[in-house]
Amino acid sequence: MTPAATVDTRVALATAPETLALAGRLLHEFNTAYDDPTPGADALATRLAELVAAGDTDVLLGDEHGVAVVRYRPSLWSAADEAYLAELWVDPSVRRTGLGRALLRAALERARERGCDLLDLATSEDDPEARSLYESEGLHATEGAGGPTTFHYEIDL
């Protein structure tokens, strides 16, 4: 059963240059916090603007402390699109306030509004807080509910 959607006024769609700049800064902070490479906040804001303009990406801001990026793609298995939650991050100073949940719910609602029939994401085994959040909102790390465990693989090309 899918949890009921609720509107959280802390979350808004980012489309204006200043809101995409904030999203770029938050994504830069996210990568920096985990010692991952980043092209910098300005480059991220520019890329987000390109993706949003192309129509296949939503950027959601949670106040000034959280960001979610949802990418859309055609499905192989149905006529509907699929959604990929590419990023979800909340500044550690405001974690456990429900902002991550609000961003996740907003991402799910945006995908439903767009007519998507699937949302997928990847997270690491060593992030139990994220996994707990996702599972509490009905996502599962199995192929179908109760199916075998799924794995996300990647390679830099």
UniProtKB/TrEMBL annotation:
Assigned keywords, A-Z: Acyltransferase, Transferase
Domain N-acetyltransferase: 17-157
Organism domain of life: Bacteria
InterPro entries xref list: Acyl_CoA_acyltransferase (IPR016181), Bact_Acetyltransf (IPR050832), GNAT_dom (IPR000182)
Signal peptide (UniProt feature, chain positions): none
Residues annotated as transmembrane: none
Keyword ATP-binding annotated: no
Database matches in CDD domains: NAT_SF
Protein name, UniProt field: GNAT family N-acetyltransferase
